[in-house]
Specification:
Among the domains are: 42-86; 89-134, no CATH class. The chain contains 6 helices and no strands. The protein has helices at 9-34, 45-58, 64-85, 91-108, 112-117, 122-128. Helix 1 (9-34) packs across helix 4, helix 2 runs antiparallel to helix 3 (64-85) and helix 4 (91-108) packs across helix 6.
């Protein structure tokens, strides 16, 4: 068995750059996925608070199985209210994506259409220098 060769500093730097690009792309795509608009009627914090009030007013009189369901719904509503009231700043993730995505996409063979299909806006791809013809 031949002895393993040491990696050159250039090779190590290229690997580190590839990992950094992958992290930037992954972070942005995960944020897009987490904040993708949902189908159907929007739930407002006010409507969720009204649902919470309705649960609180009827939970004491409910049978044990219904109470269990109401407790879970109350927890879900509290979580949804907290999530709806937190704003996410995608600008830092966008900037990292714009910087990394062109080289990452070229290296991995990712087309403009693939980026668009996973939800990356055309304006972001344009900023990154990724075009339909590339």
């Amino acid at each position: 068995m031949a002895p393993r060769k040491e990696m050159t500093d250039e090779h190590k730097a290229a690997l580190a750059e590839g990992r950094a690009q992958g992290r930037a792309v992954r972070g942005y795509l995960e944020a897009l996925e987490a904040h993708k608009p949902k189908r159907g009627r929007k739930r407002t914090p006010e409507s969720m608070r009204a649902q919470l009030a309705a649960i609180d007013s009827t939970i004491d009189a409910a049978d044990p199985m219904s109470r269990l369901q109401m407790v879970q719904e109350r927890l879900d509503l509290a979580s949804a209210i907290a999530a709806s009231e937190t704003t996410v700043d995608l600008s830092a993730l966008e900037d990292g994506f714009v910087e990394a995505s062109s080289a990452y996409g070229s290296r991995k063979g990712i087309s403009y259409a693939a980026w668009r299909e996973v939800g990356v806006p055309a304006a972001i791809l344009k900023r990154a220098g990724i075009s339909r013809g590339a």
